[in-house]
Amino acid sequence: MANITCLSYVVFGVxxxxxxxxxxxxxxxxxxxxxxxxxxxxxRMDEYEQRIILEKNSEDDLIAAGWEFNGDAELEEFVxxxxxxxxxxxxxxxxxxxxxxxxKIYTCDDPNGFKHEFVYGPAIAPTRNPFRSKKLIxxxxxxxxxxxxxxLVIARDYEQSVDFxxxxxxxxxxxxxxxxxxxxxxxxxxxxxxxTGRHHSLATAQMPIPKRIHHFMLQVQDMNxxxxxxxxxxxxxxxxxxxxxxxxxDRMFSFYVQTPSGFEIEYGWGGIVIDDANWExxxxxxxxxxxxxxxxxxxxxxxx
Length: 304
Prior knowledge:
Layout: E1 6-14, H1 17-28, E2 31-36, E3 40-44, E4 52-56, E5 61-68, H2 72-84, E6 90-91, H3 93-100, E7 104-109, E8 115-120, E9 150-154, H4 158-168, E10 172-182, E11 185-193, E12 202-205, E13 213-219, H5 223-236, E14 240-246, E15 253-258, E16 264-269, E17 282-284, E18 290-291
Parallel strand pairs: 1-4, 5-8, 9-12, 10-17, 13-16
Antiparallel strand pairs: 1-5, 2-3, 3-4, 6-7, 7-8, 9-13, 10-11, 11-12, 14-15, 14-18, 15-16
């Protein structure tokens, strides 16, 4: 059975590319990889040519999640197996592969309104052009075999979404959280990992949120970079939706900031890597073991 190795990249449709460039470079510590005719902006996090792809449109939401495979044979086997399960998987073609900077690409629809893109052969930047951040003091982001980070997808139908990610994409259960976050408002969340073991590359929950995505997580190698990014957000006036805190399941120390598109970025350090041979799936009763409270007095920097 072929398996996804990691979340290779994410694609967002955004209405304000200049505001996103400032946010990505000056706040998050990303590097611009490429821009095309004021319609596309791609960020680098490491040696890959692109990890976060922004396409100009009015959606301000998740468009696609790019899943990586170890070679053509693994990708083709996954496509055959997934098609046999009743999912329509189509070849993306050369033009899309070029835009995504990969050798080959297939796509399928997610029940929550975005695309999954299955790829191999991501383009690596020339050694003469190493990743450089203007803001990080540590060695960089946690990527490599663990991929770009994780996404939390808003489920239109929670049970259907969990079944799709586990049975169709063959993502592995990490754990569950069920918490009453407000009187009468209960959040059920399921967390999934790939074979390489980042605690979760995808999570899904049913929440009263109109967007397809709640957040995308970036993980840094130095805890100090979390604090410095937090201070940059405060200084620049970006809205901190959840202050510094700690999750009980992936043990991530992080905060959440609202992007210029309205969804959130989790900026964290210390997430665990799962060893399936010794992992026990558990259920938790709280999303955060401490912290992650709203921060008063912060407001989003608008693009007006």
